[in-house]
Structure formats: C-alpha cells, structure tokens
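Protocol step 6 of 9: fold each sequence in the batch and record its structure tokens directly after the sequence line. For illustration, a two-sequence batch is reproduced in full.

Sequence one:
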Amino acid sequence: MYIHWDKSYEIGNPLIDTEHRLLIMLFRKLDVAIKSAEPEATIMRILLEVKKFADFHFTSEENLMHEVGYPDTAAHEEIHSALLAQLEVMIGRVSKKREMPDDLLYFLNEWILQHIAQEDQKIADFARFSEHRPIGEFTYPEYI
C-alpha cells in the first residue's frame, strides 16, 4: 500500500509542501524495497532515512511555527514527539520481526495524510495571514 503525491495534499507553504513530497517519496521508496524483496538491511536503512527525514521535517515545521507566532506550537511539537517515538518503536519491532514493514508503511501513509489535512493545514492557514513572516520565505522561489 502506498500513496502518490497529489496537489490536493498541498497546504500552501512551499517549504513544507516540498518536504511533504519528499516524505511521500521516501514512503514510496520503502514500498518498492518491500515489494521487490530487498534484503532486510536495505529496508532498515530506508527506515532510518525515513526517521531522520521525519525528524528534520518536524524541526522545519516547528521553526516555521515559531517564526510566524503560531499559537498552538507546543501542542503540535508534542504530536511530532509522539510520532517520532511511535516510529522508533515500530522500527524496533520491524528489526525484531515483530512487525511487518508493510504495517509500518501503512501507518506512515495514513499518518501523513491525516496530519497534513488536519494539523499542518492549520499552520499554513495561520502563517498565510500572520504579520510575522517566515525568515526564509523570500528565498523559496529560488530554491524550491
């Protein structure tokens, strides 16, 4: 089970939308590795890549929230922390063969679509009208 990027997932912030596309690309990479029966070590390396990129992405979102003065930053950071902890547990379970990589992929796909549609959209809506602008906003067109 996998998802493909769709423009309907865009929240309107070029940086966050780009990072979401990259996350979905990594989920697709994991799906291809699973379906093509890549060695366990390869799948575990991809899972590590997913985890590290998710952590990076969460930091980007949290920085954006701080930059624009988003009022629910602390609650959103807690959601990120909980997800990273859950991801860590699931990766551990996959490595001990107590969880199938497909189950983790299903969880990731479901999570990102729900998270984008509900939580991240709130950030984008707030940022769009905030008097405080993201620090690097003027550079987005040049790099994204």
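Sequence two, same batch, same settings:
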Amino acid sequence: MLVEFGFLFGKVLAPILLLVALGALLKKRHPVEMQTLSNLQLYLFIPAFLFVHIADSKLTLPQIGGIAGTILLIQGLLALPLYGLLRWRKVPQETLAVVLLASVIFNAGNFGIPVALRAFGKPGGEVQALVIMTANLSLWVLGYGLSAAITGGGWQGLKEILKLPILYVMAAGLTVRATGWHLPEPIDYALHLVSDGLVPLALVTLGVQLATQWRLPRWKLILPVAFFKLLALPAIAGLVVWKLGLWPWPGAQLIVASAGPTAVNSIFLAIEQKGDVELAAECVFWNTLLSAITVTIILAVVIRLGGVPPGMSQ
C-alpha cells in the first residue's frame, strides 16, 4: 500500500502541487491580480471546459442526472446534520456559515479537474465536468441561502445565481449533445483550445490564492472542518455510490471528487455574508495542503478496490 501511495502521489498529485507552487512563487515575486484570474476561470475557461465535456460526453442522460443527483445527496447527508449540530451548539451565524460551506462544498474546478484527468483520463474529465456544474450550483445556492437566512437578501442571491454562466453553458452543451449538431470547425477548435488551457491556469490560480491566504491556523476550528471535508464527506460518498449501484464507475470519480479540499469561492461568499473571512481563508489553505495526503490515500483505496473507468487497466 505504501508503494502504491508513493506511485499515485508522484503520478497524480506531485505535478499538480508543482504548478500550485509555481503559482505561489509567481505571487510572491510579481503583483498578480487575483480577481482577473478568477474571472478568466469563471467566465471563459470553466464554461469552455464544461461545454466541451458535456457536448462530447458518452454518458447517457440518466447517468448525467444520476451524477448530479448523487453529488447533491452526498452534500445533503453531511450538511443537514452538521447544520443541526452547529445550531444546537449555538455557533455564531458568521462562523456557522463558514464551517458549513468549508465542510460540504469542495474544490471541483482548479483542484478537482487536474486530479480527475491525471487519475482517470478523459472519462474522469467527463464526470468531473458534471461535478463542477453541480458543486458550483450547490455552492452558490447554499451560500446565498445562508446569506438570505442571515441578512434577508434572498432576491439578490437569486439574481447572482442567474448570472452564473455554467447554467447556460450546461443547457447549450446538452442541446448540442441531444441534437447531434456540430459547431463550425473554427469555433469548435477554439473551444477545445480554451478547455485544454484550464488545468494550468486553474493550478497557477490556486497557488496565487494560497500565497495570498497564508496565515497561522486556529486548529480548534480547522481540524474539525478538515475531518468533515477530507474524511467524512468521501466516506459518505462511498456509501452513497455503493447503495445506488454506481460502483465502480462513475462512483470512483465521485468519491475522489468529494475528497477535494474546500472550495476557494467559500471565501468570496464569506466576504459577502460578512462572515468569518479569516476562518474561510484558513480552511481553504490548510484543507488544500492536507488534501495532498488524504486524496492520495483515498485514490489508492478506490483504485485497489477496482474503481476505474471501463476499459482502463488498474
């Protein structure tokens, strides 16, 4: 198992961490505008990736719906009891929102995509595209839902959700897929080119974000969040995919995806909700570092148990 761990770490996680480190070094040596990098991902690179992988996907419509529904079920099975526990413990609202989001919403984009592609190739990317769509929707719906509960700003939250390009990209990708219509070759080539550029941009952006968010941790809060996010959520995912008959595929990718660290966008939501922004930043930073170990272990276990795409050798 130790040899397998070392092999997978070197094959999957080490190249990812190298690009993240280069992004952090870039931030330390040169002024980098974080908002510009985030906007490039959210409004150009991720939409192109989603469209390409949904339109070209070999997954059936029931499989697509099953993947989206499974991710929401996995998140709900942790979010509901955790919310009840936090309310019972009378945790302040600004801390409650951060802990809940940091524990349930995972980094499906700039961490999850390269892990999926390195571990499982194109089939992993197809599944991860749907995971991104679902994880981002749940992030903003849950985040703005909490914001509405705290501040009463429900309509503003709905407007922000409707601005997300992934809603319209998903609809366009499914339409092209269902009709069999082919985009003009120059447009199709440009979309694939942008889609292929997402991974390096996402990892460099993650490195810039981590370099910006470095701070000494409050372990009393960080460790419980790390337990829920990095261990409890993938354990729940394993149980769900087994019960729903999604093992070995796409269940393996859903488990690995759920093991990803806290989503970076939880920081932006904490800012909007006037929550504990420092705690959100600490959760993102330390969960990302710890996930290099936990994701490798979970990936090794998943592969050893036969969790690979059809036709892929273990």
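Proceed to step 7 once all outputs are recorded. Observation for sequence two: The chain is about 80% helix and 0% strand.
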